[in-house]
């Protein structure tokens, strides 16, 4: 059996390597490393895939969030509501934008931002909500849009973990994660569902004026060459990465389906185990399983992790600590257990190996060992 990885980028490269090599080689031969033709072509192909009017590529997913916040014309001290249980990028970019971060708890079943918690956190100073579609499933966007509409707030969706996930509206229509709020952002970090071979990111919007400004800010605020209409940043997607992404975009649906099949097998295998809570699936979103994250209810999560490690099965804790307790984001008003859902999730969650290249034998071995761990405890 092949060694089990959280994400097996090598196995993926073995499958599509020739196509990738050819794509890279053609960029090398063209020497159009910055803003080469593949960048525009990738953006157009991504627009078609995402069914969104504008895709603006940039250097990484964190920059995408930062650039999105820069175009909204927010003022220092304006409040942004986001989840306490996620990757640091949301808080980081809000802080860099001079905004006041208002953390809220997630929903314990879906791990996504709790709409009820958002509702309670809205004040006269709130200007922006940043839901994160965590682990590959959409946050409750229709309720979030309702709140945003009522209180005149912007919505930036962080779709870094949900490229290809679909949100289903009550009226029967569907939209891709990231194309629902005012602006959406994503990351092409290698381990993401759509990942390149380095750093990369993109912004989505259906608004022409935002699109113009996002594109300008991502490229030094430049309107025409050496004429600057906005204060910008240098955040572009390399042509080589765009060429790789063009190859991988063709496989994205197949890869996401393969992840779903792995998740279905995990779900089924763990359904009889009292100590494990499998990830909740909601009716308003598809799930593309960027992570398959279980909750361990017997207080022995760390022991399970070590046990799996002893069998050469990797697992990861996303996320080990609430953002509001990180040194950089502490606020004297916050207590240790200020966000009880986040606090308990940080102690219970464990993400199991999840990738499209998972072999049946590997999956069986992981399941057998997880179940063995709980059986030997009894
Ligand atoms: C990966 C990730 C980001 C950041 O993307 P980078 O490309 O690494 O900057 C932002 N938000 C979430 C939820 C992510 O998972």
Describe this structure in words.
The protein is of the alpha/beta class and 378 residues long. It has two domains: 9-104 and 111-249, Type I PLP-dependent aspartate aminotransferase-like (Major domain) (Aspartate Aminotransferase, domain 2, 3-Layer(aba) Sandwich), CATH 3.40.640.10; 252-376, Aspartate Aminotransferase, domain 1, CATH 3.90.1150. It contains eleven helices and 14 strands. The strands form four sheets. The chain has a seven-stranded mixed beta sheet, with helices on both faces. A three-stranded antiparallel beta sheet has the order 12-13-14. A two-stranded antiparallel ribbon has the order 6-7. Helix 1 (9-30) packs antiparallel against helix 8, helix 2 (37-50) runs parallel beside helix 8 and helix 3 crosses helix 7. The longest helix is centred in the C-terminal third of the chain and has 32 residues, at 239-270. The chain is globular, with a radius of gyration of 21 Å. The model has no long low-confidence stretch (mean pLDDT 97).
Strand order of the largest sheet: 1-9-8-5-4-2-3
Q: Which structural class is indicated by helix and strand composition?
A: alpha/beta
What value does the average pLDDT take?
A: 97
Unreliable residue runs: none
What's the CATH C level of the largest domain?
Alpha Beta
Q: Helix segment count?
A: 11
Shape: globular
Structural Rg: 21 Å
The name of the CATH superfamily of the largest domain reads Type I PLP-dependent aspartate aminotransferase-like (Major domain)
CATH topology of the largest domain: Aspartate Aminotransferase, domain 2
The N- to C-terminal Cα distance equals: 29 Å
Helical coverage, percent range: 40-55%
Bound ligand species = pyridoxal-5'-phosphate
Q: What is the domain tally? A: 2
Described by strand count, sense and barrel closure, the largest sheet is: 7 strands, mixed
Annotation, overall tally of beta strands: 14
CATH architecture of the largest domain: 3-Layer(aba) Sandwich
């Amino acid at each position: 059996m092949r060694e089990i990885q959280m994400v097996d980028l090598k196995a993926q490269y073995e499958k599509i390597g020739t196509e990738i090599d050819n794509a890279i080689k053609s960029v090398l031969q063209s020497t159009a490393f910055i803003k080469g033709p593949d960048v525009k072509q990738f953006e157009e192909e991504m627009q078609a895939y995402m069914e969104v009017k504008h895709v603006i590529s940039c250097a990484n997913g964190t920059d995408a969030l930062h650039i999105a916040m820069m175009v909204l014309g927010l003022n220092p001290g304006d409040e942004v509501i986001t989840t306490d249980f996620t990757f640091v990028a949301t808080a980081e970019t809000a802080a860099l934008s001079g905004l006041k971060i208002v953390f809220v708890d997630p929903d314990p079943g879906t791990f996504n931002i709790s709409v009820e918690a958002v509702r309670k956190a809205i004040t006269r100073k709130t200007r922006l909500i940043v839901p994160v579609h965590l682990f590959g499933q959409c946050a409750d966007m229709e309720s979030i849009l309702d709140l945003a509409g009522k209180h005149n707030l912007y919505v930036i969706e962080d779709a870094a973990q949900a490229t290809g996930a679909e949100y289903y509206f009550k009226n029967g229509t569907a939209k891709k994660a990231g194309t629902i709020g005012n602006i959406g952002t994503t990351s092409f970090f290698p381990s993401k569902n759509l990942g390149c071979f380095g750093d990369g990111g993109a912004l989505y919007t259906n608004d022409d004026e935002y699109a113009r400004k996002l594109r300008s800010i991502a490229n030094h605020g430049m309107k025409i060459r050496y004429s600057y209409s906005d204060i910008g940043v240098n955040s572009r997607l390399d042509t080589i990465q765009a060429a790789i992404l063009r190859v991988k975009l063709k496989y994205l649906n197949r890869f996401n389906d393969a992840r779903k099949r792995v998740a279905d097998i995990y779900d089924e295998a763990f359904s009889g185990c009292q100590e494990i809570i499998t990830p909740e699936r909601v009716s308003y979103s598809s799930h593309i399983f960027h992570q398959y994250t279980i909750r361990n209810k017997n207080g022995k999560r760390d022991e399970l992790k070590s046990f799996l490690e002893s069998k050469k099965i990797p697992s990861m804790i996303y996320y080990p600590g609430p953002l509001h307790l990180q040194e950089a984001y502490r606020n004297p008003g916050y207590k240790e257990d200020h966000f009880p859902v986040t606090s308990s999730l940080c102690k219970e969650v464990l993400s199991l190996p999840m990738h499209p290249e998972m072999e049946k034998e590997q999956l069986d071995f992981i399941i057998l060992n997880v179940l063995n761990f709980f059986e030997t405890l009894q």
